[in-house]
Structure formats: structure tokens, C-alpha cells
Specification:
five-stranded antiparallel β-sheet, eight-stranded mixed β-sheet, globular, alpha+beta, 39 strands
Length: 750
């Protein structure tokens, strides 16, 4: 299952990567009666409202009928005709700006550069990598030995050429990853998406023969969850037909599929409830053993886990619903406690990572076998784990700086050792294999390019060995990074990083881009947003720009408490945090409203949508990418029903009142001087869906607000799933917009 906006990294199929709408002519508006009526009403309201009304003083808002529901269907001809016209108007301005062409060329050069560090996946002594460059815009799946990977020019073996496959099969294939069967890893389940949607086909692939298996496992396009049991059996959760999906559009049935039999004959082993988010299964492998586990995802943050025993029956694993299974290690299930848990003889603290032997889950006194793996303090948080043959590696944060802890399991429990790595940066385990001793750990910062270290588990006696370093792609010698804190209205101190020239004048004239996410317990660390960004370095820092990243509540930077502080009816705290950072940037002279821009995507798109509707006076540029904006209908759009545990259900009157107070689509009002927003979305986004951006843009246009809108025809929700050409175009448009709004002597005209 994927987090909203960001993937859970459970295989290389989820490698992360960070992804002029002028007022319409009256003749165009009149082609749509509802739009024309809204335009007329907006003009009347605008004539009566001469100044912006502060958000706090706004009258209570009722929800009127929505005149833009026709823009919600993903591929309706009428909606796509509207999109085509908006794209035309945006490109007529931004793509004709004299800066766009050089930007597009330079960004393309950076994204397609062969000097980038190939992101590794360790399998059976091989390093696998999915690679895109100028000659392979869809990508190559390739591999090389670990020893050769460390060489300056590794002799890569191409396993699958996705560009060639797309041309041969006449399909717009995009890579969504490979799930290979340990320990040989010679058979893999490849997930391929048409256009970048979350829905994908799954096809069995023979790595040795470098071809798809004739008569092998083959699943049609769907939002599927598939994993191996053994060479002849799969765990499959997919669209099996009517009644097999949850209200969120994800699978609720899990079956075991035997090789050589049709999918229709797969044996049902679990059936969840229609109200579940997603029900799935996976197998954990280790030397000498394996365990297949079914997960009933009741909400986004609560679940029940069941072990499939040797007889094929389900046995409940005694974990609390709020616990998240993070992995397995030599028969131990590893779980993160999002809430405190009281067992018969112990109180386990919230945020703790624990282990429980799977062979003791049915014991009446199972809790006496539980062991504490890692417990963060109030300044720290667990951020991930990786399993090697003899060592468990825990990724942790302390004041939003990374550290890696090697854990060994002995008779008396887990023994930790800090992996010695450079300070003042972010670290994380990039790759490991449960059947191999080595692990690859990365280090990077905003100004230091990624470096990979190899460790063999002998910590603290052994030291990491540097094996690969990405060349610097921009000049960082004149830049520096500071961590600062802003006070939110309730007194909570919010950390943020500031990247700026060493000689920066605090005169309010520095073009500044503020970024944040603030949701779903996800910390803003390199695993989700690369700190070292060659594009930002060359296209923003090199032009004198300043970058700020805020670690607001709702994220996971300080564990469950940081996330829970901004859940549901407390959501406004995340927005208050973001606005507090913006105000501090202005108050300390770093920038000014004229020079301050904000950017967010997915849940971050909602964040910036709230920010510019609540405080339009603070910003002059807003990039609102693949956003969630209509909070009164979000559960009816895309996979929105799966996020009720984060935002609340608008069908609940109490939650509806809370959502209505900040929902950007309902709170944008005529007569307010909003910054000229740039909405960016994708026609193939089947997770959030472009309806949010479409409707918001149409509503603002009808009110007379100038803005930009661009809907990419490919790429889905994750920018990294688009072709490099598509990503290059979108990014060039965004930077052209930022230059026009923040770096020009005068902002582009309203």
C-alpha cells in the first residue's frame, strides 16, 4: 500500500524521486453555462469587496452546490477539452518566456546526466538499478556485481529495456518495480504502468533469460498487491471482480494462486470488509525460513496481522491495531508502536520498535518474549529499517538529522551500535539483502552530494567503506545551511532548514522558496525528498535563490506525537506551523511577501492551498502540485476514502465543520487579492486525481483571479514515474513561473 503522495519503500518498485493560466475570454466562459453563472456572481461579489477579509474574520461558510462537478471524471471529453484549453493558455505564456528554453535544456541535461549516483538495490550479490537518461527516457532495468558497482564506470548488464518494450508492444509503459523471489532472485514480478497510473499489470520475468516467462504469472491492470510464497505460489490481492474492492478502490480479498492455474481458481484465504482501506499480504524471507503475513488495513493507521500457518490457516498476531509491521528478522516480527501498549507485564511506550518471535504468538504469555529494539527520546524518531543477514539496521532521526544504528540480536535482547558516518547531514540505509552480510548506507546534505558506504555488520569494530560518490553538480562553496525554529501560535517550536548564500543580506529582497509536507507521519528526509538537488542547485541557488524546508506537525520528524498533533480536528496546527515559518522568514529579513514562494505536492499541495487562501498576503508564488483541495468531497475522488484516518470523514457533522474551516476549494472567495497560483497535475493520477486542481482553477478563474494551470498527459501521481522528457517539461515550466514571480524586477502582470 502507498502512503498518500509518497510511496512506502518495500522494493525497488517504489524508488523515490521529488516531481500561464490567464483569465478566460468571455466567449470561452459562455460555452459553459455553470461557469458563466459563477463568473457573473463573482463579478458582483468582487465589486462589493474592495479589500481582502482576513480568514479569521470570514463569516461562516455554507457549502453551495458545486458547479464544477463535470470536471471530476478523469477522462471525460468535456473535462479534457477544458484541460487542453488551459494548457494552451499556460504554455502560450510560460513556454514562450525567453527563460523557458534554456531552462528546459539545462534541466534535461541534469536529469539525464550519466554522472548521477545509480540508486542501488541489493539482491543475491548483485546491485540492481533502474536508470533513465537521454537515450532511455522510460528506463533501463540493469545489474552489476557489488565489486564492479564500486568502479567509476561499472559494466552494467541490461536486464530489461523499457523503452524497447514500450516500442515493441506499442504501450506507454512506466516502471513501477520488481519483486524478486529470494534467495536466488532469478524470478521477479515486474509491475508496469500505462502512463504512470497506480494501477499496473504484473508479469513474471526470468532474470537469467532476460525475458518474460511464457505461460508465467500474469495479472491484468489493477491496483494489486502481489508477493511470492514460493516458486509456484503467489499471494495475490487484486480486483477479482464485483465486491472484491474496498470503498477506497483497493483490494479486500487475498488469495493464493498456484502456477499453471487460471487466476479465477486462486484459493481465497482472507476477505476483509468493504470499509477497510486495503487488505494485502506479503512474505518475509530469511536464511532457513520465511513467513507469509496477511494484513487487514482497517484504516490508514490501524490494522490486524495474521500469520499463514503451515496448514494454510490464519493465526492472529497479537499486536495492537495501531502497531505497524516494519519487517521480520530470523523469525522475529518487527513492529513500530504508534500508541502506548500495555501487555500483561509491561507498558511499551509510544514510538518504540519491538520484536516478537512468530513461534510464540499463540502462547498465553507471549508478551514475555517481546524485546525492545529501539526507543527514541523526545528529540528523536524511528524512520525506517533494513535487514541484512546478521544485522538489523535502524534509520533514526535526532532533531531531524539522520543516524544509522546497527542492531544485533542475542540471548539478552538487542544490542545497538551507532554506525560512524559524517555529521551534519542525513544518513539512511539504501540497500540490504536478508541473505547477504553487506549493506549500503548513503550520506548527503543540502550541499553535499550523495556518498555511498559499504558496511558488513561488524560495528563498532569495522568502519564503513566509501565506495561511490556522486560528483558535485553545482557550486556549493558560496552557500551555507542553518537550522532555525519558528514559534507556532500555540507556542510549539517548529524547526526548519534554511539554505542560503553565505553573504546573504537580510533586506527582504532574497527570492525564497518554502517547502513542506506535514502529513501521514512522513518525515521530510532524503528517503522521501532528496536533500541534494542538482536542479535546485543549478536553477535556484545559482541564481541567488534561498530555499527553506519546514518540518511542520503532521509529519514524522519527532515520532507519533508530532503526527498526531495535527490529525483530523487538529489539522489547522500544521497550517499554522507553516505560516509561522513563513512569517519568521519575513520577520528576520530573509525575504518579503513580494519575494516569497511556496511549493507543495499531494498532501503538500493541500498545505499550500490552505496557506494561500488563509494568508494570501504572505506569498507571491504558489506551486500547488497534484493537490488535494476539495475537502468536502475528497472521499469521493480517487483513493480519497482511504485517508479518512488522517483528515476525518466529511459525512460526520463534527468533521465536516472542521474540514470546512480550512478546505481551500470552499474558502477561496471573490474580491481577495490572491497570489497568481500555478496548479500542476496529471491526467493519469488515479490516486488524488486532477479533479481537485481542475475545479479550484475553474472556480478561481470564474472569480477573475489570474493563475496558471498545467495538466501533464502522463506521470500519474509520482513525478518520478513519468518519462524524463515529461518531467523536464513540467519542471522547466515551474522554474519559469518562479523566475517570473520572484526573481523579476516586477512580478508578471495580473
Amino acid at each position: 500500500m502507498r502512503f498518500f503522495g509518497l510511496p512506502i519503500l518495500n522494493s525497488d518498485k517504489d524508488l523515490p524521486l521529488m516531481k500561464e493560466f490567464r483569465r478566460a475570454a468571455l466567449a470561452f466562459v459562455l460555452t459553459f453555462p455553470a461557469l458563466a453563472q459563477a463568473q457573473t456572481a463573482a463579478k458582483a461579489a468582487a465589486s462589493a469587496a474592495k479589500t481582502a477579509t482576513p480568514f479569521a474574520a470570514a463569516p461562516k461558510i455554507s457549502v453551495p452546490p458545486d458547479p464544477y462537478l463535470w470536471l471530476e471524471p478523469l477522462h471525460s471529453p468535456r473535462a479534457l477539452a477544458w484541460v487542453k484549453e488551459q494548457n494552451r493558455k499556460t504554455l502560450a505564456v510560460l513556454a514562450r518566456d525567453p527563460r523557458y528554453g534554456p531552462l528546459k535544456k539545462d534541466i534535461g541535461r541534469i536529469l539525464k546526466s550519466k554522472s548521477r549516483l545509480p540508486e542501488p538495490v541489493l539482491r543475491g550479490g548483485w546491485v540492481y538499478n533502474f536508470w533513465q537518461d537521454g537515450a532511455h527516457v522510460h528506463g533501463l532495468w540493469r545489474r552489476v556485481s557489488l565489486a564492479d558497482y564500486a568502479k567509476p564506470n561499472p559494466p552494467w548488464q541490461t536486464v530489461l529495456d523499457l523503452d524497447a518494450l514500450a516500442a515493441k508492444e506499442k504501450q506507454n509503459w512506466f516502471w513501477q518495480g520488481a519483486d524478486c523471489l529470494p534467495p536466488k532472485n532469478d524470478r521477479c514480478l515486474l509491475s508496469l504502468s500505462r502512463g504512470g497510473t497506480d494501477a499496473s499489470v504484473v508479469r513474471e520475468f526470468d532474470v537469467t533469460a532476460k525475458s518474460f516467462v511464457k505461460g508465467g504469472f500474469d495479472l491484468p491492470q489493477a491496483k494489486s498487491d502481489v508477493d511470492w510464497v514460493d516458486r509456484n505460489h503467489l499471494l495475490v490481492a487484486t480486483d477479482f471482480g464485483p465486491g472484491s474492492l474496498t470503498a477506497s478502490g483497493y483490494p479486500r480479498e487475498v488469495k493464493i494462486w498456484t502456477r499453471g492455474t487460471p487466476l479465477s481458481q486462486a484459493r481465497l484465504i482472507f476477505s476483509g470488509k468493504p470499509g477497510d482501506v486495503e487488505d494485502s499480504a506479503q512474505t518475509f524471507f530469511w536464511p532457513g525460513g520465511r513467513a507469509s503475513i496477511v494484513t487487514r488495513g482497517m484504516t490508514f493507521f490501524t490494522s490486524r496481522e495474521y500469520l499463514i500457518n503451515p496448514q494454510g490457516k490464519l493465526v492472529r498476531i497479537p499486536l495492537p491495531p495501531s502497531a505497524e509491521v516494519e519487517g521480520a528478522f530470523h523469525g522475529q516480527i518487527l513492529a513500530l508502536l504508534q500508541s502506548a501498549w500495555k501487555t500483561h507485564g509491561h507498558l511499551w511506550e509510544r514510538g518504540a520498535l519491538i520484536s516478537l518471535p512468530l513461534d510464540q504468538i499463540t502462547a498465553p504469555d507471549f508478551d514475555k518474549y517481546i524485546r525492545l529494539v529501539y526507543l527514541p527520546d523526545r528529540a528523536s524518531a524511528f524512520s525506517g529499517l533494513n535487514v541484512a543477514k546478521d544485522v538489523l539496521y535502524v534509520d533514526a532521526l535526532h532533531d531531524v538529522s539522520g543516524r544509522v544504528i546497527a542492531m544485533r540480536l542475542g540471548a539478552n535482547g538487542w544490542t545497538p551500535a551507532i554506525v560512524p558516518l559524517p555529521d551534519e547531514g542525513s544518513t539512511s540505509v539504501e540497500a540490504s539483502d536478508p541473505f547477504e552480510t553487506q549493506a549500503l548506507i548513503s550520506y548527503e546534505s543540502f550541499l553535499v552530494p550523495p556518498t555511498l558506504y559499504e558496511v558488513d555488520g561488524d560495528i563498532p569494530n569495522g568502519k564503513p567503506r566509501e565506495i561511490k560518490r556522486q560528483p558535485a553538480i553545482f557550486d556549493a562553496s558560496r552557500l551555507t545551511v542553518d537550522q532555525h525554529w519558528a514559534k507556532s501560535p500555540d507556542g510549539t517550536m517548529i524547526p526548519y532548514f534554511l539554505v542560503h548564500p553565505k553573504n546573504m543580506k537580510r533586506d527582504g529582497e532574497n527570492p525564497t522558496l518554502l517547502y513542506a509536507y506535514g502529513g501521514f507521519d512522513l518525515p521530510m528526509v532524503p528517503a522521501y525528498m532528496p536533500y541534494y538537488s542538482p536542479v535546485i542547485g543549478n536553477e535556484w541557488f545559482a541564481k541567488g535563490g534561498v530555499f527553506a524546508m519546514a518540518n511542520i506537525r503532521g509529519g514524522g520528524e519527532f515520532g507519533p506525537r508530532w503526527h498526531e498533533a495535527a490529525l483530523k480536528t487538529h489539522r489547522q496546527k500544521a497550517y499554522d506551523d507553516f505560516i509561522a515559518v513563513a512569517e519568521r522568514l519575513i520577520g528576520t529579513g530573509v525575504t518579503s511577501p513580494r519575494r516569497l514562494g511556496i511549493m507543495g505536492r499531494s498532501n503538500g499541495g493541500l498545505l499550500v492551498g490552505v496557506a494561500f487562501t488563509e494568508r494570501p498576503d504572505l506569498f507571491n508564488a504558489v506551486i500547488c502540485e497534484v493537490p488535494l483541495l476539495d475537502m468536502m468531497r475528497y472521499t469521493r475522488i480517487g483513493a480519497g476514502a482511504s485517508w479518512e484516518a488522517e483528515y476525518g470523514n466529511p459525512a460526520d457533522p463534527k468533521m465536516a465543520a472542521a474540514l470546512l474551516r480550512y478546505s481551500p476549494y470552499q474558502n477561496v472567495r471573490p474580491g481577495v487579492h490572491y497570489p497568481k497560483v500555478f496548479f500542476v497535475t496529471s491526467s493519469d493520477d488515479d490516486r488524488v486525481e486532477p479533479a481537485h486542481a481542475r475545479k479550484m482553477a475553474a472556480k478561481m478563474e470564474a472569480m477573475g483571479d489570474p493563475l496558471y494551470f498545467y495538466e501533464s498527459p502522463e506521470g500519474g501521481h509520482e513525478r518520478g514515474e513519468a518519462s524524463l522528457n515529461g518531467t523536464t517539461k513540467t519542471m522547466a515550466l515551474e522554474y519559469t513561473y518562479l523566475y517570473r514571480r520572484l526573481m523579476s524586477a516586477a512580478a508578471d502582470s495580473r
